[in-house]
Amino acid sequence: MPGAYRIIENTWIPLPDGRRLSARIWLPEGAGPFPAILEYLPYRKRDGTAPRDETTHTVFAAEGYACIRVDIAGTGDSEGVFDDEYSEQELSDGEAVLAWIAAQEWCGGNVGMIGISWGGFNGLQLAFRRPEALKAVVSVASTVDRYADDIHYMGGCLLSDNANWGSQMFAYQSRPADPELRADWREDWIKRIEGMPFMAAEWLRHQTRGDFWKHGSVCEDWTAIQAPVLAITGWADAYVNAPPALAANLTVPAKAMIGPWEHRYAHIAKLDPADFHGEVLRWFGRWLKGEETGAEDLPDYRVFMQEHFNPTMQNKPRQGRWVAEADWPSRNVRDRVMHLGQGVLADQPGSGVTVVSNPATVGQASGYFCPGMRFDNELAGDQAVDDALSACFDAAPLAEPLELLGRPRVKVAFSADKPVAQLVARLCDVSPEGVSQRITYRPLNLTCRNGFEVPQKLVPGQRYEAEIELNECAHRLKPGHVLRLALSASYWPVVWPAPEAAEVTLHLEECALILPERKAEQEIEPQNPGAPREYPVLQAEQLRAPGGSSKTWTREDGTLVLDTFDDYGKAVDPYHGICAGSHVTMHYEVHPDDPATAVFASDWTFEFERGGWQVSIETRNKATCDRENFYLWREVTAYEGAGRDVVVTKEWQETIPRGVL
């Protein structure tokens, strides 16, 4: 039976250089000592992740784990200065935190790390460093390669979310510590704002896969990780490649699971929630408590095999079934080669050429890069509108089902008319009614055809070869449906466009699609997670309900505009009484005839108050470009009191050469 626990609202964890990190602890009642679970984030334990923490650490504490939620240095209530994501400071501080936890009298010495996204990243990254206390990791929606599979670049192409995520972290960093915990909160607040790194610019300065991105990329040495890893994500999430890569390459016990979920822990997902707690407790029960939970006997790879479900941008249930592979890579998955012909996918090589050329507005149905971050209106919709503007290659309607599991590949022989060009591949499931559902996608900056460390500009008209390895997928196409490969030279707003509109000519006799076709003669028990168990919910007083909207419209000159609004609501925390609220607007635009007109802008507002204390922060951001440069601008204004007296205001701007982007 679950046991009682108590919450320690704040504890200071000392670091070797005298700084202190702020921690909230859920401590089981009883004699102890207990195994511990660490979640280590920059998102503010006091208000930012408090609603989610209530649904996780309370459950784990009741099952006999000491749970510790720590704010990274310079964020939330922690002392120090924040410098960058996954920095050496963050990871060395994390090692000190793990050692501190293991040394506490209430801890038996075994510590696990859990986290989604940032916390999933640094859990793997700290395991890579082999701290003695870290015995197991549950990593959700993470990456093994910070250049190839994060929010900055994909296939050597710049993602618009580099600017978007930079704007979000800019807003997050500008928030003050809680005066109840930090008497120096106001001085520290001003110091934080004045010294905030311009991360979007720093990330944009590192355009190739060099040492900057190799730091924290655990794929650099798979043998370094010696703590067992459970890797989880969802098909609606942006981070789908890490779990199977970890299962295939780690030399210690590693299991992968991908469900239908968006960028959330599975129990609170909007898309078919599941028993995330059960998965975590089984994993940590085995590796932190030494219990016989069957964790090591799980199939290497458990997936929700999706089917066509008439996609919309709104959250709606998925269709499919759970399947499992005992070993990964699996003998049940083999390459199936299909060749590109004139508008078709066929068993024999094609001939002639196909020109890929499209307006810069292709991508209207792409959805938000990382669904789960917005309120709604963020999923990939019917691809038909984008297919109509792309070069499409259709297979014959299926006579029998086709299952795909893994990463499809597209091999192309091509020439281009510009020195910098992109090729974006989308694999779609087209219903008999013509509804096109995206199965998977991925862009390639064709200057990176030989790798991502030293791109080489194209010689217009010269013939080259390249391969695009699409993102991981699990999809069953039904009889009567059509498999479609759609190729375009841009994919806005997910991918920042090339500097000029390019024509990419495909030489079809050497172009092929390699599918990871799954044929299982006998299915094994998938051990799917099942429905979520009951869990506590933060009993906050809601003062403003959350909500959101999206609007796509066209200016008189033909510029396509996407405006979104997300209000995350306003509520009072029941534990300490802080009233917090926030909202954000985002703006994307591009002219169909000129990719260099691409614009991203966002404005964030945060409000905090309790008693006589009242502050608010407004941040504004804009990213634009021409054919030679990127232009980044941002501004912050911080206010205090009911009269909104300005505490500090500051503006930054950077011009960064495009290189081969």
Please render the helix and strand layout as text.
Blueprint: E1 5-14, E2 20-28, E3 34-41, H1 50-62, E4 66-71, H2 88-103, E5 107-116, H3 118-128, E6 134-140, E7 153-154, E8 157-158, H4 161-173, H5 185-194, H6 199-205, H7 211-214, E9 229-234, H8 242-249, E10 254-259, H9 276-287, E11 301-306, E12 320-325, E13 333-340, E14 345-346, E15 353-356, H10 384-387, E16 391-394, E17 402-406, E18 409-416, E19 422-430, E20 436-445, E21 464-469, E22 473-477, E23 482-488, E24 504-507, E25 512-518, E26 541-544, E27 547-554, E28 560-572, E29 579-591, E30 594-610, E31 613-625, E32 629-640, E33 645-657
Parallel strand pairs: 3-4, 3-5, 5-6, 6-9, 9-10, 10-11
Antiparallel strand pairs: 1-2, 2-4, 7-8, 11-12, 13-14, 13-25, 15-24, 16-23, 17-22, 18-21, 18-24, 18-25, 19-20, 19-23, 26-28, 27-28, 28-29, 29-30, 30-31, 31-32, 32-33
Helix pairs in contact: 4-6
